[in-house]
Amino acid sequence: MDHFSYKNGTLHAEAVPVDAIAAEHGTPTYIYSNATLTRHFQVFDGAFSDLDHAICYAVKANDNHEILKRLGALGAGADCVSAGEIMRSIKAGIDPSNIVFSGVGKQPWEIEYGIKQNIMQFNVESEPELELLSSIAASLGATAKIAFRVNPDVDAGTHDKIATGRQGDKFGIAYDDALRLYNKAATLDGIEVQSVAVHIGSQLTNLEPFRQAFTKIKDLVIQLREAGHNITHLDLGGGLGIPYKKDIPPSPSAYGQMVKEVLGDIGCKLVFEPGRLIVGNAGILLSKVIFLKETYHGRKFLIIDAAMNDLIRPTLYDAYHDIVPSVEFDHTTDVFPTDIVGPVCETGDVFGKDRELPTMKADDLIAIRSCGAYGSVMACSYNTRPLPAEVLVDGDEVIVLRKRQSLDELLAR
Length: 413
Ligand code: LLP
Hints:
Blueprint: E1 4-7, E2 10-13, E3 16-17, H1 18-25, E4 29-33, H2 34-46, E5 53-58, H3 65-74, E6 77-80, H4 83-91, E7 99-101, H5 108-116, E8 121-124, H6 127-139, E9 144-151, E10 173-174, H7 178-187, E11 191-197, H8 208-226, E12 233-235, H9 252-263, E13 269-272, H10 276-279, E14 283-294, E15 300-304, H11 313-317, E16 323-325, E17 336-341, E18 350-357, E19 365-368, E20 389-394, E21 397-402, H12 407-412
Parallel strand pairs: 4-20, 5-6, 5-13, 6-7, 7-8, 8-9, 9-10, 9-11, 11-12, 12-13, 15-17
Antiparallel strand pairs: 1-2, 2-3, 4-14, 14-15, 14-19, 16-19, 17-18, 20-21
The structure holds ligand LLP.
């Protein structure tokens, strides 16, 4: 459920009509809803209310300062994949004791920074990383708490580019090598083993791959404990999908139930790293029509002022996003199959093909839904297009989170 809906025929973000936002802030503009963000965090958190758990929001999904600040105030920690993300999280008020550091290629300066901040945990993804972490921690006279990220060789059944837990993927250590590496870690200076981490992919719409992966992790924890390792935490990653189309992924409570069935008696603090589930449906990208043109056989192209540089998901993952005009329309009459495209000079700059839309004209507003996650964070200035503006709506208040980049600012780089 989100808080973008039609009221009196006009699309609103909470209490604010989107045309008022366009008039004040221009387009393309990312619009986030505070009520949606809050609700999603609370629903996910609530699914684990009877377990010792922490929610370390995956900062990569949307790293905006105000969003991190608000999630931190709700009790979120952070899952970070760079020193930059750790810095952002701390600046937004998230306590380092609630920060995990993931990623296959942590650099020495990033590791040193994480150690100095005394973060909750390093999720180590290789033997060389373990050795580097040990040497840096020891040289600082510190102890780094670690999990190994274990690749369980489970296919998440999601898009190929966002599946991370199969044998051929670059992530984590091999399942069969885990015991050896935990034994090695236990002998190294500056390292304290506390956890096992797993993350098999993003936008999962089925619980079975999670269940398979978590069952393998449970077996591993039993083996590790038999070998004398004190496993007090489990990091179960993120990945639960959101509804982009009409198909409905499992609810957080169904996911929570499955986690309890598999791991309820494991005696560990459970750490979750959701990103998309928290922010995905809390954002839309508002855009304006530049032209409607017809080409061969009456094919209609709606050319809008947002493009693949603002939102790359459809181009990169063939991702489906709902696209709706700001003015409510009757789906049963006067609609035509329309391709919604951006102005960038690439054939792949397409947001949706053959969508049933009413006839639209220049300056009409159109919203691409479910853009709160992996939207603005993946934007770039390809084709010398300035980065879009971002605003947060909280009730009837509109707060500018990032003002639109000016061409001068862009050219100055
Ligand atoms: N934890 C780790 C270690 C991750 O790599 C990720 C996402 C997450 C948590 C959060 O996953 P989520 O709950 O958001 O599914 N740009 C792509 C998604 C990339 C996901 C990368 N890792 C997209 O737009 O679909």
